[in-house]
From TrEMBL:
Residues 1-13 have a biased composition (Basic and acidic residues). Residues 14-26 have a biased composition (Acidic residues). The lineage of its organism: Eukaryota, Metazoa, Chordata, Craniata, Vertebrata. Keywords: Autophagy, Cytoplasm, Cytoplasmic vesicle, Endosome, Golgi apparatus, Lysosome, Membrane, Metal-binding, Protein transport, Transport, Zinc, Zinc-finger. It is a peripheral membrane protein. SMART domains: CLH. CHCR repeats lie at residues 570-714. This is Vacuolar protein sorting-associated protein 41 homolog. It is found in: Cytoplasm, Cytosol; Early endosome membrane; Endosome membrane; Late endosome membrane. Belongs to the VPS41 family.
Length: 856
């Protein structure tokens, strides 16, 4: 097999023009190899004249009249001495049990390969063609045809004798014949005929196009694609004919079948053979010499070409074209070449006198070979992965390794490293070899991000080697690897020592310090990591504390945490006050009052009572650092010492806070006085008086304002709904000029009118509601009450109606729906001739309350 492949490669090299060095990007469709072994020895002494192909074997005829049966490797299995001159054609039936042979000296032999019994005849003219019925072995009449100057049909009659019929004559020698099913196609000097053996009718005559070509030099090539499609190649013309059934209504005297030419086109060169390939054609071309060209080009153009073409209705499209260097091609003519094919496989045999070449479709292995040859490694790898079950000569991993090697040679180290993930898979040895190779070429960084880090892991030394490499040259890359790689991949202590060594040279390097903290975290030395994070004020410090419950380690680092981020620190401390007590936090922050204030302020906002013992201290803290929140604190705190707060506020001249504290302590006059004297804000004074709702305060406010016209205006605008405005107006001195007095008086009158209207409206609503309720009560009391056996006495709890209604009985029913036997009512329920429900009276309700109760 290795020899065959080697020969195929040599032939492929020879099958392209040596003078043409340019690479083509188009992949060939076929691959070639010479048929060797016994064929080589035969063609050294003799020359091939014809060959026919069966799925099981080959039959080769020579110029010296011999016929050889060969296996598909070219080994001779049988030899027949038929004649001393050229064998013109060999025909086999479908079973391969019978063979027909004709030669140039007029001999025709048809016999079984396992018995020589059959037909043997010598004619007085050369017999050019012979064809057996495809079912020759199975049929009873054993039909076959021969062709010299006429086409003869031989068949056995019922007496087991051969009967001869002339199918055609008079148009020159028969040069080609092909039999398929019931159809016989043959070519003579005039054209191609098709004969239907079942109806014994000739159904068509396809004339040849170029009559200037000698039929013996440029013979016709016939090929059946299927039972109804005939392909004709003659000269440079190709026609594809389809045999169709004729409509019975159109028959008359015409044959039952007819032929339609579905495609016809001209080719550039002369046709030596045709064969079908799916919906395409494989065409063997004879390329004629052209003396006008140079010698080198003459040599190339005289080589036969094997093309794959796509027939079209009025033309064709070339799919691929290969020039073949067959032995002695310079001496061959168009008639010396033949193309045979195996219908069972896509095998095509190019026969020339001194050489036989086998062409076959390229398989996936060949496709991959071509891609590798063109250095298209990625496409080769993809093709191998898709067809890994069908490839025989290639291995996906080996192709992948070749691709990686190619990328490394090209300097594309990142792409090479990326492919390692896909190609190396779980092969530990290959991974380690690649890592060391990347180390040798100084590209460990490229492969680092693609190393396995899941269930498959390399030896720790591999990961440590890469980390040490990064630590020497790239601190940021080193930090990235530490973050991305699980700590179990390498010896953590060894890396920590290496980082510490580098920190001795650069102790303030934040990247190395952060990475060292992460290493300590992996090693569960959280206290060391916390120290570094706090030193760097790293954002992950709070996450580290929460995740690993490091509250015991931060009790003496509260100030550092607060300096870093007060808000996050306070939230964390308050959320975990069961782990770090409030007293401990206050103790730690006592020397940093501004931080202590932030903590206590948030504590107070969360719970007004939780830090009550620090409320006294908070007064001074608010006064010092957060005065806007002092007054809200004083309003909301129930544990704040008022005297202490008043003292601090008076010292700092906080008027609003002092006013609030004075009013809360009951000294409202002093508070009002401060508003009037120190704030001089009549609106606030009026608001304060409204809040206290004290007549004496209003008097004080009026007395203080009586000699201040702006204050009087403010009072006139706001006092109307709380104090009689007449009291203020009577006390205004005559002649005093008061700003906007007219508008103020108008407003007082409007307010008064509004109050009168409101009172009248309320009165109307009250009267209407009273009347409505009275009418409802009257309707309710007039309503009847149903008394039946289901009702019981509320006193004795027996049925209200006696079992014998014929006897006299008394029942009392109240509007409240309570029912009693008359004799069951207690005597105290009867007062001044009016009787009340005993139950409702016990509940201190008036008459009819039972009705209201029921209504509810």
């Amino acid at each position: 097999m290795a020899e065959v492949e080697e020969q195929g490669r040599k032939l492929s090299e020879e099958s392209t023009d040596e003078s043409e060095e340019e690479d083509t990007e188009e992949e060939p469709k076929l691959k070639y190899e010479r048929l060797t072994n016994g064929v080589t020895e035969i063609l050294q002494k003799d020359a091939a004249s014809c060959m026919t192909v069966h799925d099981k074997f080959l039959a080769l005829g020579t110029h010296f009249g011999k016929v050889y049966l060969l296996d598909i490797q070219g080994n001779v299995t049988q030899k027949f001495e038929i004649s001393s001159v050229k064998i013109n054609q060999i025909s086999l039936d479908e079973s391969g049990d019978h063979v027909g042979i004709c030669s140039e000296d007029g001999k025709v032999q048809v016999f079984g390969l396992y018995t020589r019994e059959g037909f043997h005849e010598n004619f007085d003219c050369p017999i050019k063609v012979v064809a057996l019925h495809p079912q020759f072995s199975k049929s009873n009449n054993k039909q076959f045809v021969t062709g010299g100057n006429k086409l003869l049909l031989y068949e056995k009659n019922w007496l087991n004798r051969w009967k001869t019929s002339v199918l055609h004559e008079g148009e020159g020698n028969i040069t080609s014949v092909k039999w398929r099913a019931n159809l016989i196609a043959w070519a003579n000097n005039v054209g191609v005929k098709i004969y239907d053996i079942s109806s014994k009718q000739r159904i068509t005559n396809v004339l040849r196009d170029n009559t200037s070509l000698r039929p013996d030099m440029y013979p016709c090539s016939l090929c059946w694609k299927d039972n109804a499609t005939l392909i004709i190649g003659w000269g440079s013309s190709v026609k594809i004919c389809v045999v169709k059934e004729r409509d019975p209504t159109e028959m008359r005297d015409l044959p039952s079948r007819y032929v339609e030419i579905v495609s016809a086109f001209e080719t550039e060169f002369f046709i030596s053979g045709l064969a079908p390939l799916a919906d395409q054609l494989v065409t063997l071309f004879y390329v004629k010499e052209n003396s006008e060209h140079m010698e080198e080009e003459e040599e190339f153009r005289t080589r036969p070409r094997l093309d794959i073409i796509q027939p079209l209705p009025e033309g064709c499209e070339e799919i691929s074209s290969d020039a073949l260097t067959v032995r002695n091609f310079q001496e061959n003519q168009c008639r010396d070449y033949r193309l045979e094919h195996s219908e069972g496989e896509s095998l095509f045999y190019i026969i020339s006198p001194k050489d036989i070449v086998v062409a076959k479709e390229r398989d996936q292995d060949d496709h991959i070979d071509w891609l590798l040859e063109k250095k298209k490694y990625e496409e080769a790898l993809m093709a191998a992965e898709i067809s890994f079950r069908n490839i025989k000569r290639h291995d996906v991993q080996k192709i992948g390794m070749a691709y990686i090697n190619h990328l490394v040679e090209r300097g594309d180290y990142d792409a090479a490293a990326r492919k390692c993930q896909k190609v190396l898979g779980k092969n530990m040895d290959l991974w380690e070899n690649e890592v060391y190779r990347f180390k040798t070429i100084g590209q460990l960084k490229a492969i680092s991000q693609y190393l396995p880090r899941g269930d498959l892991r390399l030896r720790p030394a591999i990961y440590e080697m890469i980390l040490h490499e990064f630590l020497k040259t790239d601190y940021e890359g080193f930090a990235t690897l530490i973050r991305e790689w699980p700590g179990e991949l390498y010896n953590n202590m060894a890396i920590v020592q290496a980082v510490n060594e580098h920190l001795k040279k650069d102790p303030t390097n934040s990247t190395l310090l952060t990475t060292l903290a992460e290493l300590y975290t992996y090693d569960q030395r959280y206290d060391r990591a916390l120290e570094i994070y706090l030193k760097l004020r790293h954002k992950d410090v709070y996450q580290l504390i929460h995740k690993h419950n490091l509250f015991s380690a931060i009790k003496d680092k509260i100030v550092l945490l607060m300096d870093f981020d007060k808000e996050k620190a306070v939230d964390m401390l308050l959320d975990n006050d069961d782990k770090i007590s409030m007293d401990k936090v206050v103790e730690e922050l006592k020397d940093r009052p501004e931080l202590l204030h932030v903590y206590l302020h948030k504590l107070f906002k969360r719970d007004h009572h939780k830090g009550q013992k620090y409320h006294e201290r908070q007064i001074s803290l608010y006064a010092e650092y957060d005065r806007p929140n002092l007054l809200p604190f004083l309003r909301e705190s129930m544990h704040c010492p008022l005297e202490k707060a008043l003292e601090i506020c008076q010292q700092r001249h906080f008027v609003e806070e002092t006013v609030f504290l004075l009013s809360r302590m009951g000294n409202c006059r002093r508070a009002l006085q401060m508003i009037m004297e120190e704030l001089a804000d009549v609106d606030k004074a009026i608001e304060f008086a409204k809040e206290q709702d004290d007549r004496e305060l209003w008097d004080d406010l009026i007395s203080y304002s009586i000699d201040k016209p702006p204050f009087i205006t403010g009072l006139l605008n706001n006092i109307g709904t709380h104090v009689d405005p007449i009291l203020l107006i009577h006390r205004i001195k005559e002649g005093m000029e008061i700003p906007n007095l007219r508008d103020s008086l108008v407003k007082i009158l409007q307010d008064y009118n509004l109050q009168i209207l409101l009172r009248e409206g309320c009165k109307k609503i009250l009267v209407a509601d009273s009347l409505s309720l009275l009418q409802r009560m009257h309707r309710t009391q007039k309503r009847g009450v149903r008394v039946d056996e289901e009702n019981i006495c509320e006193s004795c709890h027996t049925p209200i109606l006696p079992s014998d209604t014929a006897q006299a009985f008394g029942v009392v029913v109240f509007h409240c729906r309570h029912m009693f036997h008359k004799e069951c009512l207690p005597s105290p329920g009867n007062v001044a001739g009016i009787q009340y429900c005993n139950i409702c009276s016990a509940k201190r309700r008036g008459p009819g309350s039972g009705i209201l109760e029921m209504k509810k």
